[in-house]
Amino acid sequence: MSIRGDRRTFFHLLVSTLLVSVTNFTVWFAITFYTYLETRSVFATGVVGGIFLVFTALTGIWFGSLVDHHGKKTMMQVSTVTSLVFYAVALVVYQLAPEGAFKDPASGWLWSMIMLLMVGVIAGNIRGIALPTLVTVLIDEAGRDKANGLVGTTSGVTFLVTSAISGILVGFGGMLWVLAPALVVLAGAIVHLAVVPVRETAAAAAPAPELEIQPTREPTTEPAKRRVDLRGTMRVVSGVPGLTALIVFSAFNNLLGGVFMALMDAYGLSLVSVQTWGLLWAAISTAFIIGGLLIARTGLGRNPVGLLLAINLVLWTVTLLFPLRSSIALLTVGMFVYMILVPYAEASEQTILQKVVPYERQGRVFGFAQSVEQSASPLTAFLISPVAQYVFIPFMTDGFGARTIGGWFGTGADRGLALVFVLTGIIGIIATALALRSGPYRRLRHRYAGE
Q1: How many CB atoms lie within 10 A of CB 410?
Q2: Which of the ends of the chain has fewer CB neighbours closer than 10 A, N or C?
Q3: pLDDT for 220-261, tens place per residue?
Q4: DSSP 270
């Protein structure tokens, strides 16, 4: 594995990120499962997903500014401490709630716990912004795509562990079995990172001369009042040909991807039990690990821009195909292929940004990209849940859809959700095909290559 640089620190950061990510994703999966199992409301789970994505979109630029203006290790620790505090308060709320309080989708107890846990999970996004910027400074340019592959592998391990335990913990012990271990793991992660020295500046981190961005005319030491430098970040993004198109395309993908967050758990749980669903996702998540390890071994090639679009074309094709039959086997195969390719898309975008954006601006650009890309998903998550509940499910249960295509597509609530996935895949394929032929992506590809 030809990754050169400060490998020791990099691997310590991966371990630290793994511990925290497992905890945060376990809490996130668990509260989604728990909300659906207690209320049996697709609308409620969709609102949970929508609020989560709104918070993610609103905080991305701010988190990116914090990462750029403060020590990246410091911000990682602040992130973990924040999660620890909010999870502890949520546990108190859970213990004090009267019996049956969480079965009502409008319960104040339920939404108080959801919001506390959500803030704790959102705080973990600071790590997601800080880590790729540290890859830039810790790892030589030639090996960054492979390092990004290992970051993807870490995410895969996170999903594997999370999927294996979240459903089981919720199924047998409720949120108590989720939150008590979470507090212990986060405390251990804080202690672990405290003893890891992290070098955060290096001359080698600057972009190659042919890829330098035009100066933004701001001083080296920025005044405190400019912590959220949206205008300067916009200048950097617009100064790289095609970078705006990359972010907009990712935002459109996330617009469609909001369907997954809003409906996938409901679709899977309509086919199998929560314990089986959790274990199944554990198996599927091994594909994420495989994809990340493949990148770490072979890299992304010389054209990550073209690879990114090609991967998206395959992803939306999978989205079109797996819901065609009400089959847990078909869903499993489709999601396995999907998960093995997701690390390639994520590593491609990270590698592009790490090369074409100046290091001192990367936190803000990664945060800006996160905000813009995620801002589209809440719209889908908020809208698609009631649309699925009150339009597509009746449409495929006893409505016109059941009478016209139900003979071969199937009928019932799960077929209504499946129809949403099929339509999403068709739209995604058309959009990606258009992007492949667009001028901005050709310019970004040339910019990355230094032409």
Answers
A1: 19
A2: C
A3: 444 444 456 667 677 777 777 777 777 777 777 766 666 776
A4: T
- Compute φ and ψ for 328, nearest 5 degrees: -70, -30
**418-429: b (≥16 Cβ within 10 Å) or e:** bbbbebbbebbb
Q: Which residues pair with 139 in a beta bridge?
A: 5
DSSP helix/strand/coil, 399: coil
Determine the Cα–Cα distance for residues 361 and 197; give it in Å rounded to an integer: 22
Rg (alpha carbons) of the chain, rounded to whole number: 22
d(CA 323, CA 326): 7
Name the token pair of 215: 């100066």
Average pLDDT score, the chain: 81
SS3 139: strand
Q: Is the pLDDT of residue 84 over 90?
A: yes
Residues pairing with 5 in the sheet: 139
Rounded to whole angstroms, what are the CA distances from 406 to 251, 399, 414, 416, 421?
Answer: 33, 10, 12, 10, 16
Residue 5 CB-half CA count within 13 A: 25
Buried (b) or exposed (e) across 208-246, using 16+ Cβ within 10 A? eeebebeeeeeeeeeeeeeebbbebbebbbebbbbbbbb
Distance CA 22, CA 171 (A): 18
Give the per-residue pLDDT at 317. Answer: 92
Lowest mean pLDDT among 118-127, 177-186, 279-288, 342-351: 279-288
- Ramachandran quadrant class, 412 (left: phi over 0; alpha: psi -120 to 50; beta: rest): left
CB neighbours (10 Å) of residue 259? 27
Contact (CB, 8 A) for 441 and 431: no
- SS3 category, 5: strand
Q: Pick from 339, 425, 382: which is nearest to 55 by CA? A: 382
Amino acid occupying residue 199: R
Tokens of 191: 């202690």
Which amino acid belongs to residue 253? N
Query: What's the pTM value of the predicted model, to 2 decimals?
Result: 0.68
AA letter at 392: F
